[in-house]
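Workshop exercise sheet. Pairs work together: one partner reads the sequence aloud, the other fills in the structure field after running the prediction. Swap roles for the next sheet.
Pair: D.N. / O.F.
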Amino acid sequence: MAAGPVGILGGTFDPVHNAHLRIGQLALDVLDLAQLLWIPTGAPGYRNAPVALAADRVAMLELALRGEPRYVIDRRELAPGASGYTVDTLRALRAERGPDVALVLLMGGDQFDKLETWHHWRDLFALARIAVFARPGWSPEVSDAVRAAGPVERIDMPPLDISATAIRGRIARGKDVSLLVPREVLDYISSHHLYT
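Structure field:
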């Protein structure tokens, strides 16, 4: 088990792209993480299902994360019957890691803005520290309820105008995405004819 804080970064990673990797690197550096768990989501009923199959999304993550021993892919949310709710994943991690390991839930400012719509969102604060990766100039309207739930650590990062949705759209139109995803991921997308 990791001796220092363990970061948790969830997402569809459909595909994993350079903004995801920037968040990962910043998290390692700024939060001094011993380990960062990348948790690809399954297809729960409360959000749109990913476009690529789970096996393809995991394969792309494996390619993108090579060379950084602190990165670990955690497949629990891809298991049949997994709830996909962050709170359930954090409860399971807390039970596995014990009370002494600091868990840090990483999220973008766009997700933090929707926090009060998350399933049992208040419980997240009891299970993990929350670190929000925000674009410069982002100033959330933090409600009294969120303020009362617990502290949030803000980590500023330069704006990277990259989204998986836009990448999939560009690929479907035959446009270049070589500056948006790692080379190995682009090769995988091409060889497996994803998003066309």
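Discussion prompt: The radius of gyration is 17 Å. What would you look at next?
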